[in-house]
Amino acid sequence: MRTEYETLLIETTEPHVVVVTLNRPERRNAFNTQMGLDLAAFFREVYVDPEDVRCIIITGYGTKAFCAGADLKERDGMTTDQWASQHAVFEQMTLAMMDCSVPIIAAVNGAAFGGGCELALGADFIYAATSARFAQTETRLGIMPGAGGTQQLPRAVGVRRAKELILTAEPFMAQQAYEWGMANQVCDDESLMDEALAAARKIAANAPIAVRQAKKSVGIAMQTDLKTGYAFEIEAYNRMVSTEDRMEGVRAFNEKRKPDFKGR
Ligand code: COA
């Protein structure tokens, strides 16, 4: 897996867990075009070959921001064509993240505004620092969310709350995100990464194919009717029946030991 990116730090601090840190602190980790290209490339690589990666944590460098959305300095004065082609890059980034087979945890350690809020919503779940703030600010800037926000936020907090947040562009705190079902956990600022790593460790200890198939199946749940979704679940389930890990999981239970999953 490629680990050198202009705008991202990619670290494997423990087996099977990759921490992706958005690394433009001087701009509050805002996305420039390069960061869009880098994230799209990273998620595409994981799609093609997850290697031994079993969980990804995405966070922002420093303590001030997770991600301040699109880089408004870079965007200042862009022509229509320049804007559209940059947005196409952000669309590719968003789609590549949606297609990521490996679970993604967003560890939101500060402001997650605009595209930063959408990036957090693009993860499978969010752990937020107490001091984290979220906002879909776009309508205040003459635009609207374009990295999945109008689709992800209603799924997270309900249609009416999502409309209020997107149409007013008002910020909200980690605790509100938690109460509305958008963040799974609010953590002390200092322990955010430890808590995210603890969750990642639990995911990484489980059978990788089972985790990836379950993620895919849950992803279908809100997009289809029950019986079609269940038909998908059965197909996803069948993929595991012939795996060594299925044998190992049951054997380990009966031998009263921890399973040693290989992803096969
Ligand atoms: N694009 C480019 N630069 C940005 C940025 C962005 N989205 N967000 C912050 N910065 C820059 C600021 O311009 C400032 O640079 P300067 O020191 O050269 O003036 C620096 O980062 C620090 O920003 P500041 O606002 O002082 O930090 P803060 O910690 O008080 O607030 C935010 C952080 C993210 C809440 C605030 O910067 C903000 O609202 N940014 C815009 C977010 C947004 O609406 N994004 C949507 C884009 S579509």
3D architecture notes:
This protein is of the alpha/beta class and 264 residues long. The protein has helices at residues 33-48, 72-75, 80-98, 115-122, 149-157, 159-168, 174-179, 192-205, 208-221, 226-241, 244-254, and strands at residues 8-14, 17-22, 55-60, 65-67, 104-108, 111-113, 125-129, 133-135, 172-173, 185-187. The strands form two sheets. A six-stranded mixed sheet has the order 1-2-3-5-7-10, sandwiched between helices. Bound molecules: coenzyme A (COA). Residues 27-28, 30, 64-65, 68-73, 111, 113-115, 137-138, 141 line the site of coenzyme A (COA).
In short:
Helix content is 48%, strand content 16%.
Oligomer: single chain
The helicity comes to 40-55%
Q: What overall form do the CA principal axes indicate?
A: globular
Question: Which CATH architecture of the largest domain is right?
Answer: Alpha-Beta Complex
Share of β-strand residues = 15-25%
Low-confidence stretches: none
Q: Provide the spatial order of strands within the biggest beta sheet.
A: 1-2-3-5-7-10
The largest pleated sheet is described as: 6 strands, mixed
SSE run = EEHEEHHEEHEEHHEHEHHHH
Distance between the termini: 19 Å
CATH class of the largest domain: Alpha Beta
Overall pLDDT score: 97
Tally of individual helices? 11
CATH superfamily of the largest domain: 2-enoyl-CoA Hydratase, Chain A, domain 1
